[in-house]
Amino acid sequence: MAISIKSPREIELMRESCKLLAKVYEELEKAVKPGISTWEINVIGDRLIREAGGIPNFLNYNGFPASICTSVNEEVVHGIPRKDCILKEGDIISLDAGLIYKGYHSDAARTVRVGKVSKEVDDLVRITKESFFEGIKYAKAGNHLYDISNAIDDYISQYGYGIVRELVGHGIGTQLHEDPQIPNFRQHKRGPKLYPGMTLAIEPMINMGRADVEWLDDDWTVVAEDGLPSAHYENTILITDGEPEILTLL
Fold it and tell me: What DSSP letter does each residue of 233-248 carry, written as one string?
């Protein structure tokens, strides 16, 4: 496993890329409302990325046909935007997107409530987001990678939710997916030591029911096998000499 340590200049470029993505999300989330199609959300997201000076890094990545992953309700990740997928009150949609700026990638995901949602769904979205922040309490130089994984697992497990195991976080930099892989579930080993200059995409993917998932026939969309809602929250972070820096938040 070769985990890249970014130079000061690379870190500045990562910051720029991630700041642009954070601004895209600020606008993109405003577009989510009952009656909009996931295809329209993708069109808006693609435009925002390009207007910011970035290149959508998901578009055509291993053949993915859109710039924004739009995963609705029981869809966990990698939902393909469609003109006939119309959001309605009470839905949730996970938006997953990234961009390339001056050769450096950013990556983040948000699960957005469509109008008013049930308390059970609201709790799932909130707790998934909280688990990210519980995990990065351990994202400090001198700690080990799986300290993050174990903290996310400890936080989620008390609520009885299912932690998706087939999909994990990752390193990020000049490539969208770099070493290391970052599980959101407990590991028996400690994993690699964390050093300043590492840039990581931490992304809990949490199912309301069982952890089991399956792939739809489009070979991209991952859904909760039991049909219950799923939530996703992700940021690109930087390991520093002190507290981690969340690069994709303004």
Answer: -BEEEE--SSSPEETT
How open is the CA angle 141-146-150, to the nearest 5 degrees?
120
Q: Who's near 188: CB < 8 A, 6+ residues apart?
A: none
Query: For the whole prediction, is pTM greater than 0.90?
Result: yes
The CATH number of 8-246, from 3.30.420.280, 3.90.230.10, 3.40.50.720, 3.40.50.1240, is 3.90.230.10
Which residues make Cβ contacts (< 8 Å) with residue 111, sequence separation at least 6?
92, 93, 94, 95, 125, 128, 129, 231, 232, 233
Decide: 46 and 96 in contact? Cβ < 8 Å: no
**Structural domain spans, the chain:** 8-246
- Give the tens place of pLDDT for each residue, 76-85: 999 999 999 9
Q: State which amino acid sits at residue 213.
A: V
* Dist CA 119 CA 226 (whole Å): 19
Cα–Cα distance for residue pair 78/116, rounded to 1 Å: 24
Q: Give pLDDT < 70 ranges for the chain.
A: none
Cα separation of 142 and 241, whole Å?
9
DSSP letters for 60-75: TGGG---SSEEEETTE
The single-letter DSSP state of residue 129 is H
| Tokens coding 140 | 């400090």
Q: How far apart are CA 149 and CA 135, in angstroms?
A: 7
Contact (CB, 8 A) for 236 and 18? yes
